[in-house]
Specification:
The chain is mainly alpha-helical and about 500 residues long. The protein has one domain (about 45-465, about 475-490). Helix content is about 60%, strand content about 0%. It is built from 22 helices and 4 strands. The protein has helices at about 5-10, 20-25, 50-65, 70-75, 80-85, 90-95, 125-135, 145-175, 185, 190-195, 200-215, 220-230, 240-250, 255-275, 285-300, 305-315, 320-340, 350-365, 370-380, 385-410, 420-445, 480-495, and strands at about 110, 120, 275, 285. The strands form 2 sheets. Strands 1-2 form a two-stranded antiparallel sheet. A hairpin with a 6-residue loop joins strand 1 (about 110) and strand 2 (about 120). Helix 11 packs parallel to helix 19 (about 370-380), helix 12 (about 220-230) packs parallel to helix 14 (about 255-275) and helix 13 (about 240-250) runs parallel beside helix 17. The longest helix is centred in the first third of the chain and has 30 residues, at about 145-175. The chain is globular, with a radius of gyration of 24 Å. The two termini are about 20 Å apart. It is a multi-pass membrane protein.
Length: about 500
């Protein structure tokens, strides 16, 4: 068979969104229309992965431009400018506020707390603290504080831009035949708007790399990267839950324990040097290391959460919010586990990963606007449909604007310029509605596999690694009736028989 035969083989060509997604086809008219069936894709330097990476970097740069009003003074002159222009970022504020301007070392030196008036440690996980410290090394210490904060923000954005490129490449390569799905990530408006608010992109990049390794049947490497991601942000450890139930259903315990062991080992390697101190002649947990965990536990109800709406509407301070949030999260995880074990066909890893992280976001006692970054790559892999993705993104952009307008309202004194509490509650409700809508679409795909856009071409679980096309070993409910048939069908597909 010659080269042209290989190109025309549908199993050898990347899936083209314009042939299966009406929104993608309509949007392609802006650049000349859908690609023709005889187009020779991947025959030049402009491969899908490279195009997507460049688009993602371009959108990141546009997000930097959106922060320009604050860069030129909004972070420094007046409390409301950074809110009315929706260009707030934690990065310049924490350069001085967390002691980096004074060469204080995170977790080892206390810093003044402007809220309590006491002395506290840095309240971020260890790898995020390291990224913050590296950016401070790249920031010259001469000149006035404002100029140094601007340079610190630029140093961080350079590091975060590298994380953006990693995310784009990893997502585009996770589903081998669907690289163009990563355009959902690259063009996501909420990604561009929130990328430089905080340091979440480090954890997102490590999580995307972990999912890529898992899709290539390298569970140990996936676990190591997942442990590093958890050392940068807490949420990635939750992905071990979907892997647990999926490996239970497929009987692939070796892969699960390799991933879990790798995650535990890498997390310990990063954290133990900062965690352990020998003060007083014995081993103790360092107070600076514990700050992130104690802060997370003691933090009251905060912006963007269901609990804040309840608190504002009822006047209840929600002192027991940790208990309520934990109960709801456990119930949501039980529902995801039931879906994994009872669905007529084993759900894809990306589907359950999205559902678990979405459950964490929706039940948490705080939802910072940059938390949407956790979900965007998972959403692109779980439900690669432009209509549903854009509906969700529209809700997230409305919330992004809503929180800054609400902060403008609360920080403008008697003038009350901005969005009152009722308006902010509506913006928060839109965020909940959009996320729940996308969750419902993912659940529907899992319950009715024929409607799953990833599986319509005969694929099983492109991000599943050792789970891809694996027969079921343990199922519950209605899935028992089809387990034998599905196992035989997947075995036939794996050997090439139709």
């Amino acid at each position: 068979m010659g080269p042209m035969s290989v190109r025309e083989d549908p199993q050898a060509q990347p899936v083209r969104p314009t042939t299966e997604d009406s929104v993608a086809a309509a949007g392609s008219e802006l650049i000349g229309g859908p690609v023709g069936r005889r187009a020779l894709l991947g025959t030049s330097w402009w491969t899908p992965v490279r195009i997507i990476a460049l688009v993602a970097i371009g959108m990141f740069a546009l997000g930097m431009v959106q922060k320009l009003p604050c860069y030129n003074g909004g972070w420094f002159y007046g409390a409301t400018a950074q809110y009315t222009h929706a260009c707030y970022s934690d990065i310049p504020h924490l350069y001085n506020g967390r002691g980096f301007a004074n060469d204080l070392v995170p977790y080892f030196n206390r810093i003044p707390d402007s809220v309590s008036g006491g002395m506290e440690y840095l309240e971020y996980p260890v790898l995020t603290g390291l990224l913050m410290e590296v950016a401070s090394w790249l920031t010259p210490h001469g000149g006035d504080l404002q100029s140094r904060e601007q340079v610190y923000w630029l140093a961080n954005t350079a590091l975060l831009m590298a994380c953006t490129a990693v995310i784009a490449v990893c997502v585009s390569r996770t589903h081998r035949r669907r690289p163009w799905d990563a355009l959902l990530v690259a063009l996501a408006p909420a990604f561009a708007l929130t990328a430089t608010i905080n340091w979440d992109l480090l954890a997102v990049a490590l999580t995307a790399a972990a999912m890529l390794m898992w899709s290539r049947s390298r569970p140990l490497a996936a676990g190591v990267l997942l442990g590093l991601a958890t050392a940068a942000k807490l949420y990635p450890v939750l992905l071990l839950g979907p892997l647990l139930v999926l490996c239970l259903r497929a009987g692939r315990w070796r892969a699960f324990w390799a991933a879990t062991g790798g995650a535990a080992a890498s997390w310990l390697v990063v954290n133990v040097p900062v965690m352990i101190t020998t003060q007083g002649g014995g081993l103790h947990i360092r107070e600076g290391w514990k700050q992130f965990y104690t802060f997370s536990e003691e933090r009251p109800v905060d912006f963007g959460s269901l609990w804040l709406i309840i608190s504002q509407r009822t006047g209840n301070p929600m002192d027991d919010v940790n208990t309520y949030a934990m109960i709801l999260m456990l119930l949501a995880c039980a529902g995801v586990a039931a879906l994994a074990l009872c669905a007529p066909r084993r759900p894809r890893f990306a589907q359950l990963a999205f559902l678990v992280i979405a459950a964490f976001v929706l039940t948490n006692k705080v939802y910072s606007p940059q938390y949407v970054l956790w979900l965007i790559p998972l959403a692109a892999l779980a439900r690669p449909r432009w209509r549903d993705f854009l509906v969700w993104q529209a809700c997230e952009v409305m919330y992004f604007l809503g929180i800054w307008m609400y902060l403008a309202y609360t920080n403008s004194g008697d003038q009350h310029r901005g969005l009152p509490p009722e308006g902010y509650q509506l913006a928060t409700a839109l965020h909940f509605a959009g996320t729940l809508f996308l969750c419902a679409m993912v659940v529907r795909d899992a319950l009715v596999p024929d409607r799953d856009p990833v599986r319509r071409d005969g694929s099983d679980d492109p991000s599943g690694g050792v789970l891809d096309r694996a027969p079921d070993a343990f199922v519950l409910g209605e899935a028992r009736r089809t387990a034998q048939y599905e196992g035989a069908a997947l075995t036939d597909w794996g050997t090439g028989r139709k």
